[in-house]
């Protein structure tokens, strides 16, 4: 009961800090260091194509690497009882790939470096994402997931810190970022406060007969709900700057803002709103007996914000819609992460299943990257952004409907050990739903 009343226990705080470090591993690289290096080594007009190619290749590699890394960490759980060695391997590989990227001034070497980086960062991220299901009790999953979803806005803030320390391209930016990552992740690996996983306790689990088929239905619906919301989130994230520039050229704001200043302020307020939404919704979902309704409300709020952003007549309504969008998205992803962690807590393949869930994050990014590579359609997409955002708002409404279509599950029923064979088979079938030909994950 003491642990339940705390905001975070010592072990949970170390976990959140390490999770933030994992996000810092890729946010400054993708937002600042990589685009800056690409601009330096390419001729005029070629940087956009190379950067889009890097994003596309990176997205495909990340999708596969996350599944394989999750499968490897599941095997480590069986052999060693924890995922510590897999996490440490990811950090070591990350240090090596940063060293390669720091001295990469050739396009081919940069592409190979990005491939190696995506493998390394997912070797760190995939097992780390499974720790909430391994060690966090169901009644605290929402609270911890809320803090975990602060990682993205905090890592975005780290981009500004790296830019201040390393204002020009060079080794300092890469090594400075790596230092931040190591300082965040290393304490978790050294202290490892979790002890033994619930899956290793050996306490027998007895599930009610009706519980067998529920997880696969709920997880598949959660996957599609996340995918639908990520379409709008990814689109607006990738095209925020050119869209704001398009609006300023059209006269919005009366010349008081330029694109750089407007995007900076929008990002700041969005980050603050996202942190508030993630923590508040996560804690609230622990209090509620049913997380589905909060997920549906968050999805509807995100849809409303997307529509408001698309139809905003001025800067104030635009900024308000953007902040509400990030608040709603952070709330949804926090509650949905806790919901999925509950569903898979008794499976012996938690890491690999979360790898399949991660496809709902990477596939929208791949779709956007493919679109961006069609340079001739870039201006058309920006000018048609209001219509595209309205379509994404409709996708958000559908995501809310999917949340309500999930089957209610009483909290706290599954507290121990491994699932029954039937449950594991049902959870395995989730991979068949999402992969062509019904194939499984990595080797």
TrEMBL record:
<feature type="transmembrane region" description="Helical">
    <location>
        <begin position="109"/>
        <end position="132"/>
    </location>
</feature>
<keyword id="KW-0812">Transmembrane</keyword>
<feature type="transmembrane region" description="Helical">
    <location>
        <begin position="294"/>
        <end position="313"/>
    </location>
</feature>
<feature type="domain" description="Major facilitator superfamily (MFS) profile">
    <location>
        <begin position="218"/>
        <end position="443"/>
    </location>
</feature>
<feature type="transmembrane region" description="Helical">
    <location>
        <begin position="85"/>
        <end position="103"/>
    </location>
</feature>
<dbReference type="InterPro" id="IPR011701">
    <property type="entry name" value="MFS"/>
</dbReference>
<feature type="transmembrane region" description="Helical">
    <location>
        <begin position="262"/>
        <end position="282"/>
    </location>
</feature>
<feature type="transmembrane region" description="Helical">
    <location>
        <begin position="319"/>
        <end position="341"/>
    </location>
</feature>
<feature type="transmembrane region" description="Helical">
    <location>
        <begin position="53"/>
        <end position="73"/>
    </location>
</feature>
<keyword id="KW-1133">Transmembrane helix</keyword>
<dbReference type="InterPro" id="IPR020846">
    <property type="entry name" value="MFS_dom"/>
</dbReference>
<feature type="transmembrane region" description="Helical">
    <location>
        <begin position="221"/>
        <end position="242"/>
    </location>
</feature>
<feature type="transmembrane region" description="Helical">
    <location>
        <begin position="387"/>
        <end position="408"/>
    </location>
</feature>
<feature type="transmembrane region" description="Helical">
    <location>
        <begin position="353"/>
        <end position="375"/>
    </location>
</feature>
<protein>
    <submittedName>
        <fullName>Major facilitator transporter</fullName>
    </submittedName>
</protein>
<keyword id="KW-0472">Membrane</keyword>
<dbReference type="InterPro" id="IPR036259">
    <property type="entry name" value="MFS_trans_sf"/>
</dbReference>
<feature type="transmembrane region" description="Helical">
    <location>
        <begin position="144"/>
        <end position="167"/>
    </location>
</feature>
<dbReference type="GO" id="GO:0022857">
    <property type="term" value="F:transmembrane transporter activity"/>
</dbReference>
<dbReference type="Pfam" id="PF07690">
    <property type="entry name" value="MFS_1"/>
</dbReference>
<feature type="transmembrane region" description="Helical">
    <location>
        <begin position="12"/>
        <end position="33"/>
    </location>
</feature>
<feature type="transmembrane region" description="Helical">
    <location>
        <begin position="173"/>
        <end position="194"/>
    </location>
</feature>
